[in-house]
Structure formats: structure tokens, C-alpha cells
Design a protein that fits this description.
Helix content is 37%, strand content 21%. The strands form 3 sheets. It has a 6-stranded mixed β-sheet with strand order 5-8-10-11-12-9, with helices on both faces. A 5-stranded mixed β-sheet has the order 1-4-3-2-13, with helices on both faces. The termini are far apart. Helix 4 links the parallel strand 3 and strand 4. Helix 2 crosses helix 10 and helix 6 crosses helix 7. By secondary structure, the protein is an alpha/beta fold.
Length: 312
């Protein structure tokens, strides 16, 4: 290489290295940001991650190496059921978004790479690049006290004399979550007719429609209701109840239930989960602000996160 070019190259390399070193040392840290620490601490109080299924993937999905520093006023946490491209755009559109909390895990199985060609991976990469970490709570929020299944059960327990217990109690019973576990079995003191049951479900889950498979030899009035948010095939299998209530159940499982005299009501998968965000959001904001020691956060429910299936 020509001596003059060599000197120029050395000067450029030295300058670039110094600039990068200065940028890195002033901006980058391997220590988690206060926002992420406050969010995780609040999550552990409300939906302890140890309650998630062993097969599940919960917790931090991706961190932001350069967290947002320019946020003025309250920092926002955006909650959603599914981290779609539309939700990602919504999060990025606000300069106050400090974190995203999603229900379904955007990373579920092992990855060999993360690329922009895969929509979910692209969402994670874009959010991280803009200083926004992503946390997932999935089945931890199903099993927790005050979680998704409890919200569905409130259709019957809020103003009626009834008991509700977990179908599968968790081995772990964190403080404040005694009796937690998968699913809920609601037993009413006084049985309800089918019309009243449907009315209550649609009101609690804010539904215009639900699907019902009434068993020809099922109970005329319903006293026991087995509940599982999302997909209920495994959790509800073998449970003795007048009615199974879930987001989805496979075709043959539904037929088998009816053959056994069990009624089935299905809402669509995420339609059984999304309404829980409404009571959860203020609880999360309160817990995060307690962790922060001040009024630092507000928690929003994504407007772009919607039920993908429509009746047409």
C-alpha cells in the first residue's frame, strides 16, 4: 500500500475507533435499564413467571442495548396479546413507548438466526433498535390469581354465589397467588339457563358472537363450568362439568364432549384472552409506579392488537 494512503488509513481508523469507543462507553451498558427492571418486578408480583408451563417461553424476549433516554413525562408500556407488525408500528409511533408487554411469545422455539424476512423477528429487531425491550407473560398470566382465567370466571363469580378453583393447581404457589393454576372450574350455587350463561360470557368478553355446541343429552341448566383461555383441549380433557368454555377446541374434541353430555362454548382463541388486558393494565401501572417510587409510568392497551377472525 502507498505510504500516504497508509497514513490516511491509520488516521481514519484511529478516529473511527475513538468515536466508537466514546459512543459505546457513554451509551451502552450490559446492566438492565430501570424501565425493564421495574416492568419485570411488577410482572413477578402480578403474573409470576415461575407459573408458566415448562414448555412455554416467557420473560424477556429481547432487550434494547441503547434504551430510550429522550422520553419526557411518563414512560409508556404498551400491552398486547400478539406482537403483530401493526402493534410494532403503533409502539414505534409514540416517542414515549419505553417497553412492550405481550401475552403470546414472539419467540417460541429455538432460533438459528433472526432476520428481517420473518415478521415477528423483524418486529423484535426494530423495537430493540429503537430502544424498546419486549417482555412476554403468556401462561404465567393464565395461572396467576387475577389472571386471564379468573377474568373469564368473573362472568359468574362477580355477582353470583359461586366458587372457582384451578383445574390443575401449580406446584409453585407464590405469595399472593395461593390456589393458582391452569384453568378454572366454576361451581354455581344456583344453576343458570343456557341463555343467561351465553349472555354473561358475551358481556364479560365483549363479544358480539360466540359458538355453541349444545349436547343433545346435556344438562338443561348449567351449574358447573370448566374454563380455559386460548386453546383448552389439553387442560379441559376429562374434567367433569356441564359446560366447557374456551377460546378454541378441536373439532373431534368438541364432538366427544357433546357425546359425553358436555356443552361447549368457544369464543375464538385470542378473543378469550384480550379482554383481560383492560383490568390488568391499571394494575400493572400501579405496580410499576410502586417499584419506581413515583408516578413514572402509564400502561396502554394496544389499539392495533385485534381479533384476527371476523364473522362475514
Amino acid at each position: 500500500m502507498h505510504r500516504g494512503l497508509t497514513n490516511i488509513y491509520r488516521t481514519m481508523s484511529s478516529t473511527s475507533a475513538a468515536s466508537f469507543s466514546s459512543f459505546s462507553s457513554s451509551s451502552f451498558s450490559t446492566v438492565r435499564s430501570p424501565v425493564l427492571n421495574h416492568l419485570l418486578a411488577a410482572v413477578e408480583r402480578l403474573t409470576p413467571l415461575q407459573l408458566a408451563g415448562s414448555w412455554d417461553n416467557v420473560g424477556v424476549m429481547i432487550e434494547a442495548p441503547y434504551p430510550r433516554q429522550e422520553i419526557k413525562g411518563k414512560k409508556q408500556v404498551l400491552t398486547c396479546i400478539d406482537l403483530t407488525t401493526a402493534v410494532t408500528e403503533e409502539a414505534l409511533a409514540s416517542s414515549s413507548t419505553a417497553a412492550v408487554l405481550t401475552y403470546h411469545p414472539p419467540i417460541f422455539s429455538g432460533l438459528k438466526s433472526m432476520t428481517l424476512a420473518v415478521p415477528l423477528q423483524a418486529s423484535l429487531l426494530r423495537l430493540s433498535t429503537h430502544g424498546i425491550p419486549v417482555v412476554c407473560i403468556h401462561t404465567a398470566s393464565d395461572s396467576s390469581i387475577g389472571g386471564v382465567n379468573d377474568h373469564i370466571a368473573s362472568a359468574f363469580t362477580l355477582d353470583l354465589r359461586a366458587t372457582s378453583k384451578a383445574i390443575e393447581e401449580s406446584k409453585e404457589q407464590p405469595e399472593g397467588h395461593e390456589g393458582c393454576g391452569l384453568g378454572r372450574l366454576v361451581t354455581l350455587d344456583h344453576a343458570l339457563n343456557k341463555h343467561e350463561v351465553v349472555k354473561r360470557i358475551k358481556h364479560t368478553l365483549n363479544l358480539d358472537h360466540a359458538q355453541a355446541a349444545w349436547a343433545p343429552n346435556g344438562a338443561e341448566k348449567i351449574k358447573t363450568i370448566a374454563i380455559c383461555a386460548g386453546s383448552g383441549s389439553s387442560v379441559l380433557s376429562g374434567v367433569k362439568a356441564d359446560l366447557y368454555l374456551s377460546g378454541e377446541l378441536d373439532h373431534h374434541a368438541t364432538l366427544l364432549c357433546n357425546a359425553k353430555g358436555i356443552h361447549v362454548i368457544l369464543t375464538n382463541h385470542s378473543a378469550s384472552e384480550r379482554p383481560w388486558l383492560k383490568p390488568f393494565a391499571p394494575r400493572l401501572a400501579k405496580a410499576m409506579n410502586e417499584e419506581a417510587g413515583g408516578d413514572a409510568y402509564e400502561v396502554l392497551i394496544s389499539m392495533a392488537d385485534i381479533e384476527p377472525l371476523r364473522v362475514v
